[in-house]
Amino acid sequence: MPFFKPAPWTLRESCDSKNTHKPIIMESNTMPTVGKSQTPFPISTTPPATPTVMASKAHELINEIRTIYTTLNTLSDLSPTPVVNANLSRLVELCIKPYSKDLISHVLSIPGFEPLCIQLRHLCSTAEGLLETHWAERLNSATLANPASPSERELHLRNFIYYQNYLDLTRIECATLEAFLHTPKPTPRNICFIGSGPLPLTSFCILDRYPDAHVHNIDRDQSALSLSEQLAAKLGYIARMTFSGEDVSTMSSKSKDSTAWSDFDVVFLAALVGMDTSSKLAILESLAKRLKPGTLVVVRSAHGLRSVLYPVSHLISSKMRRERELMWR
């Protein structure tokens, strides 16, 4: 669930022209969301004796982020409530402000800040799942025509407070990937979204953009899939959507696939699928063995202080390092 407005979409990796058997990997800068920790974070709350303006701002920012973490971490339930909503909204507000690169680098370099981010990401992930479940149930309980008209459908979805963020992010991603499609008309037909969750808004946005497309939604949470399939039927998307309960992080070369991976033109990997770079790389390597040559893979990631909310994928540097290791074996 994008709690924030999406960051610019960037192409991070592309297919080697000499090796067309690799999928094209793109990284989309998004932002994601809550786990428990009993360990305090040893971040100094006292600025240097003679603090610079930047050092003072950095410590002020970290102190507020840590206060939010402490508040959320003491709650037994991160379902939407005034307290949860207010703290998460403030956290997002802090993380998406246009800070200078120097300030961001300074904040990220302060000892103890990265462990704090790791714990906050787990908290945000839990809160995001609960928020999407809440809204999926709420949208499913509404009375609509069967099937809903496009205008009624959009009006219904706009009740979700972050719907516009999904529209904006999907528009940026689709506009970019269209430049890399190997078809006369740059419109993908078969799309897979891994980590679709209980509220598959990205999949809905994709289907609205590409009227002839089909989206296959994958999630390891069967209850989330059930809610999303029910909502897809209610909104009239079900004829162009399929659903599969799978955990892509456990796929291996010996796994028996229930998904026809070679059928897809584009695969989206949600930001919270693989909570670190090594996990994402393992998933991508497994997918590369299953996808057809030229398949586009869009990997959602975060940058700057948005990494407080979502994991950062250092795919290029990690991929190059791994290739060097293989060369010297």
From TrEMBL:
The keyword Amino-acid biosynthesis does not apply. GO terms for molecular function: nicotianamine synthase activity. It holds the Pfam family NAS. GO terms for biological process: nicotianamine biosynthetic process. Keywords: S-adenosyl-L-methionine, Transferase. Belongs to the nicotianamine synthase (NAS)-like family. This is Nicotianamine synthase protein-domain-containing protein.
